[in-house]
Structure formats: structure tokens, C-alpha cells
Amino acid sequence: MTNPPLQEFVGRHEKLFVLTGAGCSTNSGIPDYRDSHGNWKRTQPVNFQAFMSEQHTRQRYWARSLIGWRRFGQAKPNDAHHALARLEAGGRCEMLLTQNVDRLHQSAGHRQVIDLHGRLDLVRCMGCGAKTPRNEFQDALCRANAEWLTLDAADAPDGDADLEHADFSSFKVPACEACGGILKPDVVFFGENVPRDVVATAQDHLAQADAMLIVGSSLMVYSGFRFVKAAADRQIPIAAINLGRTRADDLLTLKVEERCEAALAFLL
């Protein structure tokens, strides 16, 4: 079923700045964080300061990630990712800025992508900056914690798993082999700032766009909402596809309350 207003919106703009959020990836089996009112569905994700300062927070994070990565790392792009890749291939996408860390846009063939919050398929040393593929670190976690490999838990957002009531004190978290530093997924945690160069590059592309399309984001996090404010300040049209409320509802030219893959099906 097509959505004529959305189809018309996309059709009349040649340089769309696209911002995507968790709703774009839910049909790939990756849970989202918020309900239709924009409220948290679960406890908030790990905080940067706690991760860096508390060993037990790192143990809890990586134990849950050990379980969650097994399915997250196998996720495949869905029709929403493929539709946006087709939009770019048709020359109508100035840039795609994603709040997601799953790299599914790239897997679908999208070329011009800015990972606003980083990427979960890399692990970065907070001491020397060395980066390691997440699959390699998964192997190291498995070797150090063989007794955890029989556990299973429900998927949570961003490669997490709802591993509750476990005693994480025995979980071993490998340190950086090069310098012994703390290893962290190469993503922006809550309480951590998006790198300035990433924000600046995205803003430069937004300045070249003739409209903005939001796909599957409630925009409750300011790191994404700031770009909608910037688009509104420039007085370019803004459309959003999202099930439920967004923080920018009063700034939108068009709101489509459908699943992302259904709303974008006309592009396939």
C-alpha cells in the first residue's frame, strides 16, 4: 500500500538529508529503545562514566554483549534499508545520517552514510586507540568465559541481552593486548559526546539538502534532534516516518505513522 503524500514529498526533492533511528532496524530483529510515546521500554543503556570507572559495569556490559552479539552480529538489512539504498542509487539522497550502530545501511549497499553514534562491529582501546573487529573480541571473550557460553537471554537493543539476576563478578574482560587499556565498543554511550568532526560533516551535508526525511526515530536524544532543529531553522521541509510521537512533531511538514519498510515500499 503506497502513501501518496510521502511519495510526493520524496518525489519533489532531489537532495534529501535522511536521518534514521532504531525503528529502521526493528524488522531486522534488533529491538528499539522506546515506546510509541517516546518513553524508555527498559532501564537506560550503560552510561559512559560508569563504564569507564567501574569494573563491575564493564563486566555486566560485556557479559550481556557476549550473549547478545551472537544474534546482533548476524542481522541482515530489511526492506527499509534496501529502499533507502535505492533512493541513493537514484541520486536523490544527499546524505544518510544514522543513529543506529548496526551498519545495516552499508550492508544494504548504501554508500554515503554517517554513523552518528559509531559502529558496534569495532572495539576501541580507550588507552592507545587501537581498534579490533568485534568478532575477534567475541572470540577472546568466549575463550576467557567458556562457562558463560551455555547461557541464553532475550535480545535487547544494540547487541545487548536481558541477562538478569546473574553474578557478573567472575566474568573476565580482556584488556587491550597492546597497552593493557580498557576496551569499549566503538560507539557513543549515553553521557558521551558525539565527535565534533562527525557533527560538522553531517551539518555540512544538511546545508546542501533541499529537504529532510526522518525514518524510524523518536528524536528523543538531542544528538539527532539537533539536525531537525537545524533543518527547521533553514526552513526546509521535514517529513518523518515513525510509529508514535517524535520530539519534532511540531516542526514536521509531513508525519507518516507506519512501519518504515511499509512506508518506503514504493521505492523498491
UniProtKB/TrEMBL annotation:
The catalytic residues are H117 (proton acceptor)
Cofactor binding, note field: Binds 1 zinc ion per subunit.
Task: Give the species this sequence originates from.
Answer: Bradyrhizobium rifense
GO molecular-function term, one example from the UniProt record:
NAD+ binding
Tell me its family: Belongs to the sirtuin family. Class II subfamily.
Q: Which UniProt keywords apply?
A: Cytoplasm, Metal-binding, NAD, Transferase, Zinc
What PROSITE patterns does the record point to? SIRTUIN
Q: State its cofactor.
A: Zn(2+)
Q: Which CDD domains match?
A: SIRT4 (cd01409)
Q: What is its main location?
A: cytoplasm
Q: Which protein, by its recorded name, is this?
A: NAD-dependent protein deacetylase
The record's annotation in SUPFAM superfamilies points to: DHS-like NAD/FAD-binding domain
Q: Which gene encodes it?
A: cobB
The record, for PANTHER family, names: NAD-DEPENDENT PROTEIN DEACYLASE SIRTUIN-5, MITOCHONDRIAL-RELATED
Of the GO CC terms on this record, one is: cytoplasm
